[in-house]
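sorry for the late reply, my laptop died twice this morning and i had to redo everyting from scratch. anyway the thing you sent over, i finally got around to it. pasting the sequence first so we're on the same page, its 527 residues, then the predicted structure underneath. double check i copied it right bc i was rushing
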Amino acid sequence: MRVDTVFENATVWTGAGVTSALAVLHGRVVALGDDAVSLSARSRVDLGGGFVVPGFHDAHNHMAWFGMGLDDVPLGGCRSVDEVYDAVAARAATLPAGSWVVGSGYDQNKLAGGHPDRHGLDRAAPGMLVRLKHTSGHMTVVNSAVLDQLDLAHVPVGGDVVHADGSPTGLLREQAQLLLRPLTYPTPVAQVVRGLARASEQYLAEGITSVQEAGIGGGLVGETPAELAAYQQARDSGVLRVRSTVMVAASVLHDLPDDAGFGLDLGLRTGLGDEWLRVGPMKLFADGSLVGRTCAMHDPFDGEPDNVGYFQVPEDELARTIRRAHEAGWQIATHAIGDRAITVVLDAYEAALAASPRTDHRHRIEHCAVLQPAELTRLASLGLLASPQGRFVNELGDGMRAALGESRVPWCYRLRSVLDAGCVLPASSDRPVVNGAPLLALADMVRRRTASGVPFAPEEALTPEQALRAYTYGSAYATFAERDLGTLEPGKLADFAVLSGSPLAESALDGLSVRGTAVGGELRYQA
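ok and here's the structure:
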C-alpha cells in the first residue's frame, strides 16, 4: 500500500499509548509506528523529535464572538475603572462622531472602582455610542446615548437593568442585553465569516483542530438568524479551517406541524452534517454568571444576603423545552452555573428521561459550576455530561471565591470528582470569556491555582494525562465525534498537534509550544 504521508521522527501519544510515527491516507490514520515507517509514501515529513498529540477539541467555545471581538477595545488588562475610560477615550479619538465604540473583556472583580457606568463613558467618549461587554458575556455597560434609545419599560424576563439613586447606571444584565438588539442585530453574515476566518487561524496556532460553537442563531450568543449560513460560507470559501459542531439556540426551535416534533424547519436536529460542519445540541440558558453574581443559587452570594441570583427562563418553561427537545431526538446542552440552577436542570433531565427513556443521549450541563456532592451522584446516574472550563480557576477563580465564600469553593468547577463518579469529562474554554489556549488550560487543570496564586479546590486537580485526555477524547465524546476524533488510531481522522515537548509531566507544562497543527493529515500551521 502506498500512503499519502508518513509523519516520522516523533513521539506520538495516540490516546491509547505511545509510538513513533503515523501514516495517513485520504485524511485518515492507516498505520502507526514501525508499520507506518515501512510503508511507501508520496511524502515523508520529519517532525524533528516533536511530541504529537491528537488535535485539541474545544467542547464549548464562541468562535464567531471571539473572532469578531478581535476588533474590540481590549479591556482584559485594565485594573481600574479609570483605565477602562482611558481605553475607551483612546479608541473614540480615532473614530468619526456618532460611531460605535465597542470594548470587551472587562471584569469588575479586577477593577478598582467596580463596573464602569454611563456617566464615565459619557465623559470618555462624548458624541459616541459606547458598549462594553463583560468578560462573561452576561453583562454589558452602555453610555447615555445608547441607553436613551432602549425601551427600558419592557425589560425581558430573566434580566435586569441596574439602577443607582433611582436612575439606570448603564449596566444591563443577562436577558436585558436583548434590549440592544434593535441597534446591533443582526450582524452581517460577511462580518461573521470574517470572524470565523480570524478565529480559525488563532485556533490552529494553538493546536486546536475541532470545536463546538456554544450557540448560534438566537438568544444571548447568536449573531444573526442566518448564522449557520455564515459557517457554510466560511467552509465553502476555505476560511473555516477547524472542524465545527454548532449548538443551536433554544429560542429558534419550535413545535413542528403534523406531529413532526420540536426543532428547526424541515425537521433538522442534532447530527445533520459531516466531518467538517455538523448540527450539534440545542443550547439552553438556565441562569447567568458566577463572577457577575447572577446565577441561580440555593443560598445567597457571600456578602449579599438578599442576592440568590435568578433564572433566565421560568422553571416550568425550562422543563418543557428540555422535555420537547429530548423527545424530538436532540442532544441538549443546558447552561447552568449556580447550584440551584443545576438542581432544577437535573430535575428536568430526570423527568424527560423517565417519560421517554433514551440510551446514549449525552445530554450536557454546560459549566456545571457549583455542583453539590449529591447532585454529582445524580448527574452520573442519569448518564449526563458536565462541561466545565479548567482555565476559569486561574482567570476567574479569585472572583468566584469572593462570590461563593470559602465553604462552597470545593463544589466549584469540579474535575477529578466528575471522573471518579464514572463520567466522561470533556474540556473547553468558553472563549473569549478566558484565554482559550489549550496548553494554558492543561496547566490549570493540573495545578488549580487562581491568578493570585491561591489553591482553588486542589483536590479536583487532574493528572497531566487525564487533562490531555479530556481535551482530546473527552471533548470528542461530548460531541458524538469519538469515532473519528480524540485519539490517533487507524481509521480515525489524522488531526493532530505537534508540541515542543511532552505534556505528560507537570514539570514540563511550562514553556510548551505548538510547532505544528495538522487537519486531515495536512499541516495547516507550522511555527
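The longest helix spans residues 189-205.
thats about all i looked at so far, will dig more tmrw
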